[in-house]
Design a protein that fits this description.
The protein is α/β, with parallel strands linked by helices. It has helices at 16-29, 44-54, 63-87, 98-108, 113-123, 139-153, 167-183, 197-213; strands spanning 4-9, 34-38, 91-95, 131-135, 188-191. A 5-stranded parallel β-sheet has the order 2-3-1-4-5, with helices on both faces.
Length: 215
Amino acid sequence: MKGKLITFEGPEGSGKSTQMAMLHSYLVSKGYDCLSTREPGGTRMGKLIRGIVLDADQKEIVDRAELFLILADRAQHTAEVILPALEEGKIVLCDRYNDSTMAYQGYGRGLDLSRTRRMCGYASFGLNADLTFLLDVDVATGFSRIKENRRAVSGKEAMDRMETAGTVFHEKVRAGYLSLAKEESQRITVLGPSGNAEEVHLKIVKIVEAVLENR
């Protein structure tokens, strides 16, 4: 591939979306052709899937059905958006990708890890990120951030379906992320909660610049 895929991962309230937006602005300011996208929801079809997966009223969705919905989104997203952008030499920033499925559906829901990994590979056409930033935060702090941000924006604290899965589930998700980071330490950089957003951004920029210099 001519381009690079950089993904941002993390538990709920980790600040990954904020950091991705900051990196996008930085790369564009430096003249890079950069595309930001997300999962689920990076395509027209994906937005429909996102609505289903995150709808708090969709309590009847079983774990395997949830996995298939996420993978359907990934297949369409990868084929329609990510692969064409990479072929054009763009830097693609993606909010969640294969690691999220491993953490949420694999570790969190307890689905078979090796099978889930194989299914991720199939849905993504064998594509994986060149570089991943894992924004780590403990569950309590993450949800405190979410509630505070939503109160500031809308005055409400309503949570989506994934957010209402419970503390035990989200502890498993976080542990899963950290386990994945140990397995693939060369690809995944863990950034802890210490430091403000700008300090974390500067760490990310330093790593990304080194990778782009060698591409």
